[in-house]
Amino acid sequence: MTNLPGQRSNKSVKPMNIEQMSEILGLCDKRAKTWLNRMLKLGLIAKVRIQIENSETIQYYMNPLYFFSDRYLPLSLYLLFQEQIDKHIPDWVKQKYRELQDETEDKSTEEIES
Question: Which among 38, 35, 43, 41 is positioned nearest to 18, based on CA atoms?
Fold first, then answer.
């Protein structure tokens, strides 16, 4: 998914944590946490908890209304910021995303049933 603040490490990009973001922003940890909470509250950034086996990781994503450099918006990013994005796109685009979501859910259901 795009819009993930990340850091290159061994030929891959790993999600940044709050400490890494504070370093880039030039803020102490306390001010970085205040900044991040403000961005979350304003809807400029979303926080996603990812559960992998017995561990949980947190990833942050930038709102594509403000930070986006690709041509097409992936469904997952649209769904993450749907409430804000829907105010700015026409109904036919919303319908296309709903159809994509239905297709994705159907495929997931088929995989589970197999």
Answer: 35
Q: If DSSP states are collapsed to H, E and C, what string results for the chain?
A: CCCCCEEEECCEEEECCHHHHHHHHCCCHHHHHHHHHHHHHHCCEEEEEEEECCEEEEEEEECCCCCCCCCCCCHHHHHHCHHHHHHHCCHHHHHHHHHHHHHHHHHHHHHHHC
Count of CB atoms situated within 10 Å of the CB of 67: 13
Quote the pLDDT of residue 110. Answer: 60
* Residues above pLDDT 70, as percent of the chain: 93
Positive or negative, the Cα torsion across 73, 66, 3, 37? Answer: negative
pLDDT at 53: 85
Contacts 24+ apart (CB under 8 A), 31-37: 36/60
pTM: 0.81
* β partners of residue 6: 15
